[in-house]
C-alpha cells in the first residue's frame, strides 16, 4: 500500500486491523525474560504456546530456543511486536555486513520486560516518564547480560546512563503520524464530541488546539495491536499512531490517512532506531559503526538538543523535527504547547548540516521557546 499525506479513506468499516505476519526465518535464538512473545513461526519453536483474541491478535506466546553456540552479539530489546521488529531489522543489517554473524546462534535476542511494559493502567507521566521503557535494558547492558540495546529513539531520555554510549542510528522511517478510524477519513471529519485515544500529550495538545470540539482519552496505552483492539472495541472513535511503527509491522492497511507535518509535528526522534553499547566495548562499537546512518544521527542530535534545553518529559507537550532540505542544509521546526492545547508556540531554524551547528540550532530554538513561554506555561 502506498501511503501519502493525501491517502484517501476507502470505505467506512473496512479498515482491517490485522496482525503482522512474521517470516519463519526471523528467529535464530531468543530468550524471554518475564514477557510473552508475539506469534513466531519456526520449526524449531514447536513448544510455543499461543492465545489469540477474536480480532486475530496474538495475546501470548512463550518461545525459548536453546542456543547451539555462544552468541557473538546479544541484542537486548523490549518484547512488543514493534520492538522485536526493530531488533530483527538490526540483526538483518548486521548479518548483511558481517558474514560471521549469519551462522546459527551468532546473534541472540534477549527480551527484557521494562517497568513501562508492566504498568499499563496509568499515564506514563504518573509512573516516571519515558525512561521506564529503557531503564531495565540499560541495566542489562551495563551488567554485561547483553551486548547492544535496541531502542526507539523517542523513548530514550536525553541523558544516557554512565558506561554506555549510543553511537548508532539506523536509517529513519517516515516521521509522520497516521490517523486510524473506522468511520472518518481525518480528524477534520470527526463529529463534535468524538473521542480520540492517545497517551501522547504532544498529540493531545495539537489535536485540541486545531479541533477543540474533540475530546481526548489520555490513558490510551499499550502496544500497536492493543490500541487497535481498543479502537475496534469502541473504546474510542479514533487514534493516532506513528506511521513508522505501522510500516515496520507491515500494518499500513489500518491507516485512514496520514497527517501532514503542518497538522501534527512529530515527537523528537520519531521514526528513528537507536542502538547503544558499553563505552569500553570496542568490538560492539565497530559493529555499530558499520550500521550508523549519519544523516539520521545528526537530525536526532539536533532534535534531542532542543528537547534537552526544554527539559522535556512525558508531562511536556513538545514536538521537533530536523531534516535535510533541497539545498543540503538542516531545516528544524520546534513546538511547545500547553497541555490543554490553548497555546501553541512554534519556531524554526536553518543552517549547515553539521553536528555542531545542528546541536546549536536545537539548543537555540529551545531557549527561544522557553523565553516566550514564560513561567508556568506547561502547568507543572
From TrEMBL:
Keyword terms of this UniProt record: Chlorophyll biosynthesis, Chloroplast, Plastid, Porphyrin biosynthesis, Transferase
Residue intervals of the Porphobilinogen deaminase N-terminal domain: 73-284
Main location: plastid
A molecular-function term among this protein's GO annotations: hydroxymethylbilane synthase activity
Subcellular location: Plastid, Chloroplast
Pfam family for this entry, one: Porphobil_deam
EC number(s) stated in the UniProt entry for this protein: 2.5.1.61
PROSITE patterns recorded: PORPHOBILINOGEN_DEAM (PS00533)
Keyword Ribonucleoprotein tagged: no
SUPFAM superfamilies recorded: Periplasmic binding protein-like II, Porphobilinogen deaminase (hydroxymethylbilane synthase), C-terminal domain
UniProt domain Porphobilinogen deaminase C-terminal: residue ranges: 298-370
Essential cofactor(s): dipyrromethane
Keyword Plastid attached: yes
A single GO cellular-component term on record: chloroplast
Entry's Gene Ontology BP terms: chlorophyll biosynthetic process; heme biosynthetic process
Annotated InterPro entries: HemC (IPR000860), Porphobilin_deaminase_cofac_BS (IPR022419), Porphobilin_deaminase_N (IPR022417), Porphobilinogen_deaminase_C (IPR022418), Porphobilinogen_deaminase_C_sf (IPR036803)
Domain of life: Eukaryota
Pathway: Porphyrin-containing compound metabolism; chlorophyll biosynthesis; Porphyrin-containing compound metabolism; protoporphyrin-IX biosynthesis; coproporphyrinogen-III from 5-aminolevulinate: step 2/4
Function statement: Tetrapolymerization of the monopyrrole PBG into the hydroxymethylbilane pre-uroporphyrinogen in several discrete steps.
Family: Belongs to the HMBS family.
PANTHER family: PORPHOBILINOGEN DEAMINASE
Name of this protein: Porphobilinogen deaminase, chloroplastic
UniProt source species: Brassica carinata (Ethiopian mustard)
